[in-house]
Each structure stands twice: as C-alpha cells, then as structure tokens.
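Per your request, structure below.
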C-alpha cells in the first residue's frame, strides 16, 4: 500500500506545528506549500533533520508550487492572516477570502481526490468558500474548530475540579465565534455530570452555576485570550494538534466522534450551512453526523450561533 500523503497549505505558525506533529506520528509523507519563497523549504528541512533524533522516517518537502501536492490524501489549509489584539475572527474575512479563493483553486486542480480540513479564519466562512470553489462533495471538505473549542472547555473544567483532563468529556457545537455553544448538560468527568460535581464542591447551586458560566465564557473567548497575550498572532499549537487529530481519524479510518465544522442538510434544524456538530470521521471523511435532542436553552444558543454564521457567510462578496 502506498504511503499516505498530507499537504499543508500555509507554512506559518500553525503550518509548522502541523508538519512536526504529522512527522512525529508518521501519518505519511508531508508537503508544505506557501507563497513565501524559502519559508516552507526551510521549515521542512529543519524538521526533516531530526528524524533520527525523534525516531520518525517520512519524506518532508517544502514548496512554492501546487504541483507538489499532487496525490495528497488529506490537505490542511492554514493559509491566511491570523488576528491581532482587538480583532475578531470575522475581521479577517475580506483578506482571507481572497487567499482562500486561490488556495481552493490550487487544491481543486492538483489534489482533486483529497479530503480538506480548513483551519483559516473566519472558519465557518472559509470552509464554505473552500467547498464552493473546489466543488468537492461535502463529506470531503470540513473545518477544524470544535475539537479545539471543546479541548479548551475540557481544560478549564479539569483545572476547576482538580482532575486529569484525560477524564473530562465535553463538547461545543455551533460556529467558531463568540456565540459557540459549550454543552454544559453533557460535560462530565468519566460520565459524572460536571454540574453535579460543582454543586458538591461549592454546596451551593447558584455558585456552581456561576462557576460554570465563567468557564463557558472563558471557552468562548479562549482564542482571543491567547491573541491578547501573544500580541503578534493567534494560537498555533492547539489548532494544529486539533486538526491532526481529525486528519488521523480520516487517514486511519478511526471513526472518531469529533466536533467538526460540517455541512448540514437539516440536522439540528440547519439546512445549507457549515456548522460545528459531532461527526464520525473515517476513510470517507464525514461518515455520519450524530444528531441528538437539544433542550430549549441549548437550541436557542445554537440558533443564535447559526444566525451569526449565516450573517458571516452572507457578508462574503
Ligand atoms: N497561499 C498559501 N499560503 C499563503 C497565502 C496563499 N495565497 N497567503 C498567505 N499565506 C501564508 C503566509 O505566507 C503564512 O506563512 O499563510 C501563512 C499563515 O501563517 P501565519 O501568519 O503564521 O498564521 P497562523 O498562525 O498559522 O494562522 C493561519 O489559521 O487559525 C487561523 O486565524 C488563523 O487565519 C489564520 C490561519
């Protein structure tokens, strides 16, 4: 069987971590494309030279030519500007739409059978645009947001309860914006509802709710929190890890259930838009969307988040 091939479009902060993680996990051969001459070549050479130290053996190539992504099984897109302090993800739409247009054309022409995972922001709009331009089936074009948003939520819960993050389960739905929907009702520590643990900890329902509300708020603003600290760009380790998790599930047909920005055709009451929902990711990309009943409060939050996604997508020229 031929080795798998992963193409990274964008060799900036996230692109570099993606390449290193893909190599460390030996997911396949990796090619990094960027428009800046020397940048992808330099990064890939740098990573390739520690194969003997880290114990990986795969071909790593940096390029400024789309021809090199030929035969890619999975393409991960990070091309585009990151935010600076004070900016929302949506502020990037004009400049990143132009970049995404050229990127999607390159993917369509040179990796027509690939699965595409978009990371560039504003995520929900960039995935929509990428699918439109490539014309790939919806199951082959997805966005990374929910794995990271959920991971952030899990982290805050673990810190609050003083338990291992490995035993925390939690998920966010909706768009990758300030209106995302962290699902409090389903947050658990090995199945034990987090709210119950908070109520035990504080012996006070109101205080437990206040603490949870603060974690939900921090999750929604977590990307901005990192931007404010870094000042020169946005989070890059965590989006890279999250997208690699999705790529691995597809490449190895793991059928992981991961919150994914996927095209909805009526699920959760949404038709014709890309929104974050739990998906089974396997060798066919999105193999299933796991729909479940939302309560009235969750549905209202979902509706608000979807409305924001619709407005964002509608604002694209
Ligand atoms: N084609 C390919 N690469 C491009 C193009 C293009 N048309 N235009 C810009 N790039 C490259 C840049 O040269 C740069 O190397 O995209 C890379 C982006 O890297 P960074 O600026 O370091 O940004 P990064 O932190 O990696 O974030 C990338 O992901 O999470 C989102 O909001 C974030 O939109 C941003 C994207």
């Amino acid at each position: 069987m031929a080795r798998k091939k992963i193409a990274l479009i964008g060799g900036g902060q996230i692109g570099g971590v993606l390449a290193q993680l893909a190599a460390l996990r030996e997911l396949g051969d990796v090619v990094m494309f960027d428009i800046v001459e020397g940048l992808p070549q330099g990064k890939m050479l740098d990573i390739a030279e520690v194969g003997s130290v880290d114990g990986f053996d795969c071909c790593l190539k940096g390029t400024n030519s789309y021809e090199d992504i030929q035969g890619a099984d999975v393409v991960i897109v990070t091309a585009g500007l990151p935010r600076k302090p004070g900016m929302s993800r949506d502020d990037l739409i004009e400049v990143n739409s132009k970049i995404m247009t050229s990127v999607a054309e390159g993917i369509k022409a040179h990796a027509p059978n690939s699965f595409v995972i978009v990371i560039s922001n504003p995520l929900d709009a960039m995935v929509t645009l990428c699918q439109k331009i490539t014309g790939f089936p919806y199951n082959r074009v997805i966005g990374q947001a929910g794995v990271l948003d959920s991971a952030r939520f899990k982290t805050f819960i673990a810190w609050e309860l003083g338990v291992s993050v490995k035993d925390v389960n939690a998920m966010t739905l909706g768009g990758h914006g300030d209106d995302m929907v962290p699902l409090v009702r389903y947050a658990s520590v090995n199945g034990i509802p987090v709210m119950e643990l908070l109520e035990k900890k504080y012996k006070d329902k109101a205080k437990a709710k206040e603490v949870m509300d603060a974690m939900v708020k921090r999750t929604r603003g977590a990307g901005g929190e990192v931007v404010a600290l870094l000042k020169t760009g946005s989070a890059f380790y965590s989006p890279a890890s999250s997208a690699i998790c999705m790529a691995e599930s597809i490449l190895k047909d793991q059928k992981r259930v991961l919150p994914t920005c996927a095209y909805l055709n009526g699920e959760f009451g949404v038709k014709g838009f890309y929104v974050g929902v739990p998906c089974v990711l396997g060798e066919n990309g999105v193999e299933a969307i796991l729909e479940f009943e939302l309560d009235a409060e969750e549905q209202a939050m979902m509706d608000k988040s979807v409305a924001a996604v619709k407005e964002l997508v509608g604002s694209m020229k």
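The chain has eleven helices and 14 strands.

Regards,
D.
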